[in-house]
Structure formats: structure tokens, C-alpha cells
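User: Fold this one for me? It's SH3 domain-containing protein.
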Amino acid sequence: MKMTGARGLGSAVLIAIAGICGTGAAQVAQSADARITRVQDSSSEVTRGPVTNLPVPRYVSLKGSEGNARRGPSLSHRIDWVFRHAGMPLRVTAEFGHWRRVEDKDGAGGWVHYALLSGVRTALVTEDMLELRSRPEADGNVVALAEAGAIVRLGECKPDWCRISGGGQRGWVPKSTIWGVDPGEIRE
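Assistant: Here's what I get for SH3 domain-containing protein.
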């Protein structure tokens, strides 16, 4: 369903992996700036949000089936996008009070109230007919296929591979074929 002024979504299902794909790209004007604090980590500099002290940027997911993304961090700001799928991966780029500035894979988004977001990690499949493998190796057995746009649950991630699950299936995919995890990120 495509909507004016909202983030339209269509469905994508293949074999045992189900998800939702986004359509179009958009530019979002940001009228409010959020403060960020830099914290020196032992190995590299990490940017932390001033409200949660969590890393910024970081990935989260949409908690409910709908979330309004506003031009600024308050209810008085205009709604630029409506995200319409529970579990959609989003990237937090700033914090201000109870608001988080988020963006999707295409960079579209805005300010969303923190209550609409979840810390559950999901990912968006970016390669069509992506092969899920039984182990994190290119020669592992193919256990399922996923269509581009499928939203899956993110599990363990090694330097080059991540384990994903959805539709009752799970398997390993190259990290470069999904959106919702940073290239250097390791998850156990």
C-alpha cells in the first residue's frame, strides 16, 4: 500500500522467510538537533546518546504495527512518515528527551517516541533470493531462501556472517546482504 506522506510497504514472502519491503526513497528535513556526547573507549571513540548513554548510531526495531516519524521531537511537529510494520529495523541517529531520531535503509525517517521502539534486533534482506546456509561458510548447505525486503530476526554475528531467522527457518547469511547490522559488529 503506497501512501502520500507516509512510508508505503508491500509484502515479500519466499519459501519459509516472511517479511515486508519498503518502497521508494525520501529525504527528510530535520528541524531539531540533538546533543551527543563522545566517550573514549579503550579501542576507539564511541559516540553515546545524552539520554540513554547507549551508542549512537545503533539499531532498534519498530515495536508496534505503526509508528509516526515526525519532523521534530514533539507531538506538535508534522508527521513526515508512518512506518507500518512491527519489527521493521531502524537506525537511531540522535536522542532528545523521550524522542529518538531514526532512519530506515533508504535514510527516510524522523523523530519517533521511544515507546514505539524495541531493542529487539531485526534486519532487512537486501539481496534477492538470498541463500540461508547451515553454517557461516560459502559452501554450507542451503536451508532456505529469502526475498529482498524480507524482515528477519537477527541472531549471532561473526566478522563476515550473521545468523537470521524468520518463518520458522534459520540460517547464516553474509553480513553484506542484510541491513540492520554494522560491518564490524559482532553479536553472540
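One thing worth pointing out: The longest strand covers residues 89-96.
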